[in-house]
Structures are given as C-alpha cells and as structure tokens.
Amino acid sequence: MSSVHRFQTLICVALFSLVTGCVNAPVTPLTERNHGYGQSEDEQKLIRRSNQFEAELRAKGLVLEDDAVTAYVRRVGQSLIPTMTDGATPVRFHVLRDPLVNAFALPNGGIYLNVGLLARLGNEAQLAHVVGHEVAHVVQRHGLQQHQSRKATILAAHIADLALFGTSIAYLPALGALASYSQEAESESDRLALDYMAHAGYSLRGAEQLFSVLQEVNQRESIWGSVYSSHPDNVQRASATQTLLTSRHSAADGGRVDAREYLQFRDRIVLENLRLKLNIHQYALAAKATDQDLALTPTAVWLHYYRGEAYRLMAEDPVGAAREYAWIQDEKFNDDLVGRYRQLKANHLDQARQSFRQALSYDKDFVMAYRGLGLVAYAEGDGQAARDALNHYLKHGRNISDRRFINNTLGRISP
Amino acid sequence: MILHYRRYTPYCAILLALLLASGCAMTTVREHPDFASQSRQVKNVAVLPTDVEVLYLVLTGDNERLPEEEQNLKTILAGALPGLLEQRGYQVRKTSAEELGQIVKDANFTIEQAKSAYQEVSKQLYERGMVEEEEAKKFRVSIGPIGAAVAEALNADAFLFTRYAGFKKSEGLIAKEVVSGALLGALTGVVVIPAASGGSLEMALIDGHSGDVLWTNRGGRAAAIPPTAIAKDLLAKLTATGTVAEMEKANALAKASVVAENVKKEGSASP
Fold first, then answer.
1. Interface list for A 379-408 with B (CB within 8 A)
2. pLDDT tens-digit profile of B216-236?
3. Which is it for the CA torsion A31, A33, A35, A36, positive or negative?
C-alpha cells in the first residue's frame, strides 16, 4: 500500500469513528420506564413515514381484508406482546397480499406478515416465532436504532468519500457496517422471540422447525437482505437458537404447537399465495408450492387447477419461464434458455391438461378446470375443443371475473 | 480540385439523404405487432391515476418523499394525458383512486396486480434500451387476464398507466458532489457537474380485452431544473415521439425536406 493510500485510509477510519460515535444515542426498549417513545425528531419522522407507508399499502388494497385470517394472526400476536410501559406504541398485526417470503415491523408498531411466508409455515408455534421476532423489533425500537446507525454510517461514508476524491470506495465498508449492525438486532429479536414464546406457552421447538423451513426457501423467493431470505444466516440463526434452547430454555419440548388450527388458517391463504405468484410470473415456484401442498391434500381441486395454470403459463410464456429459471438458478438469461422452454411447450401443456383433468376427476362440476382445458386446447390450436371447454366455463361458472378475456380468446378462434 | 469535388456534391447530398432515409432511427417506443388493427378497436381509454414518487436526497442518506411535489406532478399529468389521447381520436375516461374504490370492490388491488404484471413484462420490453424503429413494432407481450379485468371494471376498451420516479437533491448533497467532482477533476482533468434533480417517466397503453401491451415508451432526464419541469419535458418528449407509424411518417417528411433542401442548394450553386 502506498503512503498516500495509507494516509487516505487513516483519514477514513478516523472520520468514520468520529462521526458514528457522535450521532448514535442510546435507545430504551418500550418495556422500560421513561423510554420517551415518539419524542425525538428522528422517531417522529419514522412514525410519520410508517403511517404514510401503511396508508399506501391500504389504498392499494395490499392488506388482506379477511376477518378470520386477521383475527387469528391478531390472537397469536397479542399473546406474545410483553408488558409495555406508558406511552408505548400499540402493536398491530396485518397480513400482506405479497407472495414473497417475508415479514416486517414498522417503527409505529405495525407488523406485516406476507401470505408467501404464512403459506410456508406448518404450525402455530412456528408462526409464534416469526411474530415474536417482529414484536421484538418494535419493543426494542430497532427501527430507530437502525435509522441512527444508518445516518451515522452514510454521513461518515460521504465524508470519507470526499477524502477518497469522490471514488465512492468508502461506501463498501459502510455497507458492511450496516449489515453487521442489522444482524445484531436480528439476533436480539430471535432471542427475545424465544422468551415471548415461552411466556405464551408455545413449544420452542417451533423456532427450530422455522429455521428448517426457511432453509428450504429459495433465496430469490424473499427480499435481498431479509432475515427470511439468506441461507447462511439461517444456518447461523438455527445454531444460535439451539444454543439458547440448551442454556436458557430447558423445557423446550413442552408447550403448544397447534398444527391443526394453523393448517385450517393456512388453507385460507394458500390459494391467494398461488394466484399472486402466477401474476408475477413465478410459474416454477407456484408449481413447486402446489406439489408440496398436494402431498398433504391430494384431492384439493383448486391446487390441481393452479398446478395446471403454472404449467400452462410456462408453455404460453416461455420468455417469462426462462427468465424465472435464470433468476432462481442465478444463471444468465439468454435466447438459448428461451429456446429450451419453447421446446418444452408441448410437454408443459400436457402437464397442465393432466392437472385440469385430475381436478375434474375429483369434482366433475369444477368449472375452472374447463377454463384451463379450453386455454390448453387454444394454445395447441385445437379450436373446437377450446370453444367447447371455454363455452362450458362461461355457461356454468359463477362470478366470472375474466369473461371479457375469455370472450376475446373465443373471438380469436377461427370458425 | 475544389471544382472537381463540387461536381459530386449533389450526389453526395442525395446519398447522405438516402442513407438517412434508410438508416436506423433508434427509439425507446415498444409496440405490439398488431398495434394498428388492435388500436382501431379501441374507442375509449381509461387513464389510471399516475404513480408518482419524488425523493428529496440529502447528505445524511435520510431521504424523504416530497408529497407536495408528488401531488403537483399528479395534477400536471392528470391534466395533460386526456388531451394527448383525445388528439389521437380516443374517448377518455379519467379515474381517481377514490372513484376506483367505489366502482368495484377490490378494484385498487386488481390495478396493483395489473401494474405488477406490467413490471414483469417491462423487463422483457426493455431488455435492450434503444431499438430500431422496425424492431420496435415486434414486441408481443401481454399482462394476461388481469388487464381485461381492470378494463372491465372501468368499462373501457383500453387503459393507460403512467409512472414517474424522480429526485431532488439537497444543497448539502450538491455541494458535496461539487467538491468531490472538483477533487476528482483536479486528478483526472474531467469535471462532472452534478444534476440538482432528475426523473424518469414510463407510459403504457394496455388492451382491455386481451391484456396485450399495445404501446409503451419511457425516458429519463437529469438537470438543474425543478422536478415538475423535468416531468413536463419528459411527457412532451415521449408523446411527441408517438407511435412507430407517426415516427416513420415524421422521419420520412424530415428526410424528404433534407433531400429537397440539398438539391435546391446545389441547384442554386450550379452555374
């Protein structure tokens, strides 16, 4: 390293330490007295932004308005909230119509669980760990801590950036500092979630199971940087949880799991999750999800229908299917890949037809299967079969939301 | 020698004009191959409320949305878009977010889903930035039944949605960029002047029966002018470009006038 570089690095480190040290202030959890929630300018700003964000989610119809689903999540959530002192924000629970495997907590106390995550869980104890983790973020005011830390590191990075003559190299360590800080908060939330679960009487084995479930989640199904996405992080989290269970929670095996009630709840969101996945062209992921659910409930006609739709859309949209493949496998998207999907068209249509027929074998009056069969026949160029099946769907279907689209397809079939 | 070259000048001018005429005009417009026939079926178009996001970028990284600026932009775009469609012979149905919620239960979510579906196909549409005019007419993509569901809810043959994303920098951030730019300039000899604000605008016309993306265009700009001026400028540019057929017509006219001008010049220069 040249003396100039060494000098620049020294300046960066000095400025970074100086600025981060100046800006950070201690943040008191909401379970302690005199926490002063919402009093600082920074926190007021965060609360205001959270409120705006929530209003937008609601205006866009992204918050699931299903009383039974919301009541269930609320009941589980309320049982996990520790006793908070005066002036603390109320914690609220919502389900978000988003197929990504994720959950988040806002500084104003709003906790959001995505249908994509809920559809992955197998029992209430697993849900309790997710919810407990998010509750801990609110209670410990991690949003405010992160905000202060982020301000400090970015400010330091800007100053260091100047010292490095605007080459922006200083942003790299700043990003690293942010990520490690977040992990501390995540670890604290994992630890507190176990305490909340134990207090509410849940089996702490739910936490271990949760990490196994998350390790099965493809990194791409979540959001970059989310604790619900990264595999190595989840391996570490599982190991840390195991240590805590041994050292602090000797009765981990006791307590409630509530699998049956959770699966009843889950039934209400599984189809929404599949529909949302297909809308954003996650065909292979939707097909995989249906296969997993069909292993549990092999006669569920709607699951067969969505499996059929996943394959039909793969055939109809080879570019989208190829793009999804490249995205999941982290491979380069190119014309060769699209060509491979084009070659698989007949095979995918056949898989789709089998699924629609399977649905009809369990319920001969299931009209959605006729929709699927009609669109498969249309894609194969079998006009007569397409017309028969689609007309059957239009004639016998109730509350058809895509009548216009189907009529348009019928209009495209040559006489 | 000079006279020798002058003999060939008219031929060179014509050759240049022909090269221009046959040449590769590049565009960010994307059109469905059946655009001409499908758009003839479109009588009325619903204009969805524009999605606008403008960020105030500050030195600390604690960036804020600018609600007033966003509202101004929404008003400007909502005022301008219907007229631009009417000029092209469409009847326009304007819709506010409140009205949408009242028309059909869950209409806003349906529209969000349509927007998500468009975002997906948009990756396909804009894999390459600029394409030749001839290429621009070959984009056969659809957002599927969700597009038809939106149009049915709005009782329209097609719908237009627009999205604007912009930023405005604080004086502190600009000052920092000026200083670091100057330091870098002292070392490299290249000085970069930071833009005070910028934005990008994307517009898409979706067929309300098939969900096909009929026409779309996008553009961006960064400059030392307010975000509203940038948005107006982008809107004018994107809509002036218009459809590929309009572009071809305008190009042909421009090229014909270049040829005529050159021939005229040569004629007057000749003895």
1. 401-405, 407-408
2. 999 888 888 888 888 888 888
3. positive
